[in-house]
Amino acid sequence: MRRLNRKKTLSLVKELDAFPKVPESYVETSASGGTVYQDTWMKYEYEVDKDFSSKLRINIDITVAMKCQYVGADVLDLAETMVASADGLVYEPTVFDLSPQQKEWQRMLQLIQSRLQEEHSLQDVIFKSAFKSTSTALPPREDDSSQSPNACRIHGHLYVNKVAGNFHITVG
């Protein structure tokens, strides 16, 4: 394969024209020239869910400052239907206090929240960039075997009826 030197490559790119030319008689120049303005926005659309017979999946990730053996979680809806919590929820013993890396993550989130309260125009930019960036979830705890678990992380999902209800975390 023949390689082009830098001057030939540059002239080839300058001569490349992928757009059709407009005849000179159609062009009217002005003193100010042209302006390009780009703006983006978020558009929210809502509609009523007419399928009330199916179940709704609710994801849960809560840490309670109590050992797992003393904690229970359940859902009771207005139809007085108890949702079994054992199927989709995991009770994981953990340490309640954040690790140094997790505290730094929390400090950064608080800083972003305070900036959002001051500069509302940043809201759309941050929301859009959050979807493109890496995970915004709490970083995992660094291994520290000196602390014994003193809390319970309840995480997983529940399927509930599409009616009002209450999620309880109780002793027992």
TrEMBL record:
UniProt keyword terms in alphabetical order: Endoplasmic reticulum, ER-Golgi transport, Golgi apparatus, Transport
Ranges annotated as spanning the membrane: none
Cellular compartments per GO CC: endoplasmic reticulum membrane; endoplasmic reticulum-Golgi intermediate compartment membrane; Golgi apparatus; Golgi membrane; nucleolus
Keyword Transport: yes
Entries under InterPro entries matching the protein: Erv, Erv_N
Biological-process GO terms, alphabetical: endoplasmic reticulum to Golgi vesicle-mediated transport
UniProt topology in membrane: Multi-pass membrane protein
Domain Endoplasmic reticulum vesicle transporter N-terminal: 37-80
Compartments reported by the entry: Endoplasmic reticulum membrane; Endoplasmic reticulum-Golgi intermediate compartment membrane; Golgi apparatus membrane
Keyword Transport among UniProt keywords: yes
Pfam families in UniProt: ERGIC_N
Family per record: Belongs to the ERGIC family.
Functional description taken from the UniProt entry: Plays a role in transport between endoplasmic reticulum and Golgi.
UniProt protein name: Endoplasmic reticulum-Golgi intermediate compartment protein
Organism: Homo sapiens (Human)
Organism placement in taxonomy: Eukaryota, Metazoa, Chordata, Craniata, Vertebrata
